[in-house]
Design brief:
alpha+beta; elongated; 2 domains; DciA-like
Length: 141
Amino acid sequence: MPREPHARPVAGLLGQGLAARARAFARLAAALRAALPPDLAPHCHAAAVRGDELVVFVDGAAWATAVRFHGARLRAAAAGAGFAVRRLRTRVLAPTPPPPPPRAPRPPGPEGTAALRAAAAGTDAPRLREALLRLAARGRR
């Protein structure tokens, strides 16, 4: 099938620049975590550089204040990772809601119960037959 004139491989679109930039930001994140005290580092989740501004994302307002207190150290760490920044900004991430509790499994309906019994009758494996019949016994009538 002939290629469309504007179609290009994805690898060519991404190029080496994107991979190099991702590695640079990984170095930045590691440098920032190393520059912070051990009790503060786990609360810093990501960083970005916008012009001459270092933006650090944290998981609470109290942690943002603590990060700002270490601003000079973080700017020096960013410079060591190859990012020339003059200002520090913190952003508080929205809290992640807890996952919903798992739902109790619903028992099979009348059609499902009949299908399980038919499957049990059609198998030669005794353990499988017993398991299918136990499941069918939980069904709604």
